[in-house]
Amino acid sequence: MSNLDKQQILEQAIEWLIRMQESELSSNEIEQLRQWQLQSAVHQKVWEKALLLQTKFSDIPIDVVIPVVQKVGYSSKQYYKKYLWLLAFVPLCSSLYFTNQQMQWFADYRSGIGERKSIILPDGGIVLLNASSAIDVDYTNHQRTIILRKGEIWIETRHDQLNRPFVVNTEQGSAQALGTKYLVKMLPEYSLVTVAQGKVRVSAQQSKQKQIVEAGQQLVFNKHHIDQIKPYEESSIAWTKGFLMVNEMSLKDFVARLQPYQRGMIKTNTDVEKIKISGTYPIDHLEKVYAMLAQTYDLKIEQYAGGYFTHIKPQNK
After folding, report:
1. Are 239 and 192 in contact, with CB atoms under 8 Å apart?
2. What is the fold of 109-236?
3. Can you give 9-68 as a three-state secondary structure string?
4. CB of 55 within 8 A of CB of 264?
5. Confidence band, pLDDT 50/70/90 cuts, at residue 22
6. Burial class (CB in 10 A: 0-12, 13-18, 19+), 67
7. Does the global pTM surpass 0.85?
8. Which positions ≥6 away from 176 have C-beta within 8 Å?
9. pLDDT in tens, 244-297
10. How far is Cα 142 from Cα 165, in angstroms, rounded to an integer?
């Protein structure tokens, strides 16, 4: 197959991805996509690569891409999206992505999609990374620091012979352990701290606010403000035991919670997104999760491209 043919397949894959992002595919379009994938091994390989990259590129804000795209003369939003995907496949042009994400890619420890990773710290403490998470570990003579670059971690501290403070830093602030077991989760707009044992001192990055969070409590904070303390939610740390616990959560939000454990894309029909999901689901066995959803909520769940594309819709469609 010539390079020109491969380039055409790549561009076709990008067009399909853009269509999937902009609107829900019809049954006919899904069948057309399936037939397109079956045309050759190259089609299949490019599509699987595209779906895998889609999960990684979903975090990149479009305003990061626009200035670069404008330099090559593109002006429409669709071309911004298309150029973003081209960055993923053309190594010489991918510096923007790696510059924007280098702290995550080159972190001391990273976990992949669907992977939870346990790290033993120099002092014997333990950090458990949830799926798609990244940390740096910085131990000096004066302080033990964990820098959360992405995702969510569970920490079990140990007594330090040098009595150095133990601190987890996020983009929004810090959470200092006071002899404890606790969870820190970072999202683009805020961080969450959940304390199971001991105490944690939370500090907002750009304010003088500080708050002690005790066992059985949790709170949310951003760079400027610390929210009120709330009771501990067992569902916050269920992932450390291999489960996702939800209560009356919309299917749309449930899928977002499930996405870090699924390689590829999960697509839901708009007419089922508001279904309320409750229960405890094993995140290490997604086939069981989908079977439970299908049986309990009368859903039809289909997978394509070796599981890289999952489509959830009503049973009667």
Report:
1. no
2. Jelly Rolls (2.60.120)
3. HHHHHHHHHHHHHHCCCCHHHHHHHHHHHCCCHHHHHHHHHHHHHHHHHCCCCHHHHHHH
4. yes
5. low
6. exposed
7. no
8. 165, 166, 167, 168, 200, 201, 202, 203
9. 999 999 999 999 999 999 887 888 999 999 999 999 999 999 999 999 999 999
10. 8
For helices 77-89 and 3-22, angle between their N-to-C axes, nearest 10 degrees: 130
**Mean pLDDT computed over 104-127:** 89
Q: Where are the domains of the chain?
A: 3-104, 109-236, 241-314
Tokens of 165: 């403070």
- The domain 241-314 having CATH identifier 2.40.160.40: the answer here is no
Report the SS3 class of residue 303.
strand
Which tokens hold the place of 190? 């805020």
- How far is residue 209's CA from residue 190's CA, in Å, rounded to a whole number? 15
* Cβ–Cβ < 8 Å for 169, 163: no
pLDDT, tens only, 23-35: 677 778 888 888 8
Tokens 């959830």 belong to 312
